[in-house]
# Entry
Amino acid sequence: MLKMLRIKPLLAVLVFLVIADGFITHYLVSGGIATEGNPLLQPIVGDWGFIFLKIGGACLCAVMLLDVYRRYPRTALVSTCCFVACYGGIVAWNVSLALW
# Structure
């Protein structure tokens, strides 16, 4: 049980970053400041369905990573750290666009 404490804060940060990316992207696209880079998401960006998709997807991924952690803790920790770093970069990029 003590090992679970290592992954939960990382997963919380990951979910926060994914949702933050969704809100910042929604703001940027709705304001005409930027466009969505993911061609699969382009049709729904700007709609609130996009935000709900980001929230649901982030929570689903966190649950899946937690399940992986139970069987392969090292793999889940490394993967989650990589995802946090990537989404941290994406959010930083989006914030820089918003402030530009």
About this structure: The chain has one domain: 4-99.
